[in-house]
From TrEMBL:
Assigned protein family: Belongs to the major facilitator superfamily. SLC46A family.
Entry protein name: Lysosomal proton-coupled steroid conjugate and bile acid symporter SLC46A3
Catalytic activity: glycocholate(out) + n H(+)(out) = glycocholate(in) + n H(+)(in); dehydroepiandrosterone 3-sulfate(out) + n H(+)(out) = dehydroepiandrosterone 3-sulfate(in) + n H(+)(in); taurocholate(out) + n H(+)(out) = taurocholate(in) + n H(+)(in); cholate(out) + n H(+)(out) = cholate(in) + n H(+)(in)
Any one Gene Ontology molecular-function term assigned to this protein's record: symporter activity
Length: 472
């Protein structure tokens, strides 16, 4: 059963203590904003910290943080070979760290976000608190960023009509980008002023404040449908049903909707591999010769990337008034391809900053594809669809880091921009998939709405179940 949806604040009876009435908000944006700021404060920090540690170990010399550009560009072969060695080891280290994070998070992201259809949207936010910032395996075991972000988009889908979903999700993505860019900029100043300790402590404090807001200030949009744990521990039957919900989202759907969902999920996956793979090596590329950026320039570059999120939001807001969603996705994919090609040949600081210009609309496919998938399913399946999206996104992140980290390590000595060309080439796959959707007219709103309305006419609260077989 859905909770009523007042416009602003409203009273909320705590489900664990019916006698306690709280004042809570239907405002998910602060959760995403604070989490993005805290997470992206530590992400470039970890990369630069690992890079400096590896430099000290491999060269037995202090990291030349005060070096100038002439020293970097003077053609010193010894310095260049040192950079190549550190670049290879750093990219491989990031690959191992990502693999430790990937495997547990694949299962947990699908389970936690799917559970939100029955246990409430707020049930898994507390698990995403990054208590041990360097423990990739533990972070993945608790669901990781994809679980929290997926839950936030499912929460937003509960609160928006189909006509507003695309723009609201683009707004949430823009907020994610703006705060992450600001955090990256602050990290550079933090490192220069106070070393590596204070940024970690600040991020941990922000995570605790965010958790407090979720637990005490954010109102639930879904009434819990039943416990996931009993007196003796977790109810494995309930866990099994959550996985079945994600499976039945595809298996029990009409063929037209199933085809559209599969094509859209595949396009989303390959888009994420191409974009995240290319963007993941930006900092390593900037630290390498001939750029040799300092921590402040890395922060400025990351902060400038916020323009990408603002441009993408403006693009979605304007284009959604005159174009179908699939055309907006194609436009964003062209932006990714163009930006990666320019990055491959950027050898000066000015050119590296200007790389963000062709990438200005590269974020548009993310909210638009999420909105397309959300519009395909009924309200009681939003958690299942965003669970699938979180699973696919996490798998894409793992594949992207694995492929691009190993590729960059293998090609950095002869052409460090090769990985960007690979990312540009990979965008052809989601372009072809979205082109298929357009050719088959699978994205026509009327047909999708008919399928969704037909599903919504079913008995409220009733969900599909897989047949059970008696194995006794």
């Amino acid at each position: 059963m859905r909770a009523p949806a007042p416009a602003g604040t409203d009273t909320y009876t705590h489900r664990l203590n019916p006698g306690v009435t709280m004042r809570r908000l239907y405002l998910i944006e602060p959760v995403v904003g604070v989490y993005a700021f805290a997470m992206f404060m530590t992400y470039p920090l970890l990369q630069q910290y690992i890079y400096r540690r590896l430099w000290t170990q491999l060269t037995s010399t202090p990291y030349p943080s005060s070096q100038n550009f002439s020293h970097c560009e003077d053609g010193n072969t010894s310095l260049s070979s040192q950079h190549d060695a550190v670049q290879r080891e750093a990219s491989l280290f990031f690959l191992y760290s990502e693999l430790c994070f990937l495997f547990p998070s694949l299962v947990m992201s699908l389970l936690l976000v799917s559970c939100s259809d029955h246990c409430g949207r707020l049930s898994h936010f507390s698990l995403s608190l990054n208590l041990l910032l360097g423990a990739s395996f533990l972070t993945g075991l608790l669901g990781g960023p994809t679980s929290l972000i997926g839950g936030c988009f499912a929460y937003l889908a509960d609160r928006c009509s189909d006509g507003r979903k695309t723009v609201r999700m683009a707004l949430l993505d823009m907020l994610l980008g703006l705060l992450s860019g600001l955090a990256s900029l602050c990290t550079g100043f933090f490192i220069r002023a106070a070393g590596f300790t204070w940024p970690f402590l600040t991020a941990a404090l922000l995570h605790f404040l965010n958790l407090a807001y979720v637990l005490c200030g954010l109102r639930e949009t879904v009434e819990p449908g039943g416990p996931v744990a009993g007196p003796g521990g977790p109810s494995w039957e309930a866990v099994r049903r959550r996985f079945q919900g994600a499976y039945l989202l595809l298996a029990a759907s009409p063929r037209r909707r199933r085809t559209l969902l599969v094509l859209t999920l595949l396009a989303f996956a390959f888009y994420k591999v191409a974009k995240l793979g290319g963007m993941s090596i930006f900092i390593l590329y900037e630290l390498n010769t001939p750029l040799c950026w300092s921590e402040l320039l890395v922060g400025y570059g990351s902060a400038l990337s916020t323009a990408i999120y603002m441009g993408s939001f403006a693009g979605v807001y304007i284009l959604s008034r005159c174009l179908r969603d699939a055309y907006i996705v194609l436009f964003g994919l062209l932006s990714v391809a163009a930006g990666m090609i320019v990055a491959a040949f950027a050898k000066t600081t000015l050119m590296m900053f200007l790389v963000r210009l062709p990438l200005l609309f590269s974020i548009m496919p993310t909210p638009v594809l999420r909105s397309m998938m959300s519009k395909m399913v009924r309200s009681s399946e939003q958690g299942a669809v965003f669970g699938c999206v979180a699973f696919v996104e996490m798998l894409s992140v793992g594949v992207a880091f694995t492929v691009f980290s190993s590729t960059y390590a293998a090609t950095v000595s002869w052409f460090s921009g090769f990985s960007f060309l690979l990312a540009s080439g990979l965008t052809l796959i989601p372009m072809a998939l979205i082109g298929s959707v357009l050719c088959l007219r699978l994205d026509v709103d009327d047909d999708t709405q008919v399928l969704t309305n037909k599903d919504d006419d079913e008995i409220p609260g009733e969900t599909l179940q897989m047949p059970s077989w008696d194995t006794s």
